[in-house]
Amino acid sequence: MSETDEIGRKPGKNIGKIVTDATLRALKPGGTATDSLPGRGNGAIYFDCKPSGVVAAFYRYAIDGKRRKVHLGNYKARPRDTGRTLAELRGEAQRLALISAKYGDVAEYLAGQEAAATVDRIERQRIAEFNAARGSFDDLFLDYIESRRGKATPGVVKELERLHKTNMQTPHPAIVNMKARDIRADHILTILNPIWERGSKVQADRMRSFLVAAFNYGLTVESVVGRANSKVYGLEMNPAATIKVEKVSVPVERALSDVELRQFWETIESTEGVGPTMALLFKLVISTGGQRIKNIIETTWDDYDLDARTVRLIHRKGRGGQTMGRPHLVPLTDRSVAIVTQAKVINGNHPWPWTTHGKQPFVISSPTHAVVDWLDSKHATIEGQKVTSFSPRDLRRTCAQLMQKHGIDDRLSDLLQAHGQTGVVAAHYRNNPEAALPEKRRAIDLFDHALAKVLGEVKEQADNVVPLTPPK
Q: In what residue span(s) does the Tyr recombinase domain sit (predicted)?
């Protein structure tokens, strides 16, 4: 008699319609078993013992009279084996039976699902890569700063970097790390309101202007050919453009009185928080007749010719900025030469006279902070009265009014300060700055004489001017 299994089937033949774990563990290589699913036409689980002894399970069903199989996994004979238990295989087979009843060909349906999942995975990856490439608010502002290099003056770029750190990066890290396209007006207000509330109302307005410019840059930069930065921003609007900063009423007529000017001159060097170089900068601004402090800050030692007693300034007012500079040759008096000589002792080994560490010139806000320090000091009290607030820019107006009070012709005053120079005369002087130097020297000599009176170096007796120091 031939050998039979526990249910009377010969090895290698298809065993029964309902199987057990014992049945599957007893299968030999080449042996098969079928476990029919409940319900007519729902198919069955087909077990096939491979030469390795592993029992592979398939969901078997019929389409148009043809049998087809979908792999369910391997049968898990022991707890430490990999694969699925008989109960798990039956559960998965029943799920596929429902798919077969609804969609027909299970293999075709699963292939379609896998293809759709692949497409979805690729799309999610594409979106993730796109979002990774899409720049943050921080990226946008830094990108804008880089775009200003070579166009704006180094001082403006340095000021942008300072404002980025003090007004954005340090106090609002969560906002700056947001995607630029997700920034809304309320985020801009979160940045600007603290600046306004601490009393820096002009800075709040400037900060808003820079933010508007940065977002305007981001709206168009992706269309620029040859751009080094690969970040994209996908901006649809400028959130900063909708914000309005209440205009601050800044006094435009503030000029220091003679007493205030003398007090400032004599005490700025001894003011706590004001370094010696900054104090010399203020004195040079005053002694040169009120030159724009920003233009003097930007000078290098190459701009000074102490033998010729001149300093070459570059005026960059208007839209031309860095690329449309207008030279302005300023004569230096003995007083100014002495000031520059003192600065050379301090910073002669640096490219710029007006610097703290030699890495770059003062940022444009530094003189403002120095004036605030002076106003907060004991020196800003004269005869028991606090000096009214003023800014470094008011020194220019102070010098202009000083010239006017002492009868210096307005044309000479304007020429010395490079103020209102237009038309043919301006074109001539722009092409040849030295052409106006003789008249500027006459203006600066008259101004220095007026300044000497203010500083108490000379006094008037009737129509004569008498030096306080006896002649040598």
A: 251-445
* 408 and 313 co-located in one domain: yes
Tens digit of each residue's pLDDT (9 = 90 or more) over 390-441 = 999 999 999 999 999 999 999 999 999 987 655 444 554 455 677 889 999 9
Last residue of a domain, one of 209, 242, 275: 242
CA distance to 6, 29, 122, 137, per residue, from 126 (Å): 57, 47, 6, 21
Distance CA 51, CA 79 (A): 21
| Distance from C-alpha of 219 to C-alpha of 41, rounded to nearest angstrom | 62
Domain CATH code at residue 410:
1.10.443.10
**Which residue, among 186, 187, 185, has the nearest Cα to 177 in the 3D structure?**
187
Both tokens of residue 404? 């006017």
pLDDT of residue 324: 55
Reduce the DSSP state of residue 85 to 3 states and report it.
coil
CA nearest neighbour of 415 among 445, 439, 399 = 439
Asked if residue 216 and residue 323 are part of one domain, the reply reads: no
- DSSP, collapsed to helix, strand or coil, labels residue 460 as strand
What's the confidence (pLDDT) of residue 319? Answer: 46
Query: Do residues 381 and 295 both lie within one domain?
Result: yes
Nearest CA-CA partner of 254 in 398, 365, 137, 355 = 398
Report the mean per-residue pLDDT for the chain: 86
| E-strand stretches of 266-424 | 304-305, 310-315, 326-331, 381-382, 385-386
Give the residues across from 460 on adjacent strands: 465
- 132/76: higher pLDDT: 76
User: Where a domain ends, among 100, 124, 148?
Assistant: 124
pLDDT at 107: 87
Provide the pLDDT for residue 472: 41
Q: How far is 276 from 257, CA to CA, in rounded Å?
A: 24
CA angle 348, 350, 352 (to 5 degrees): 95
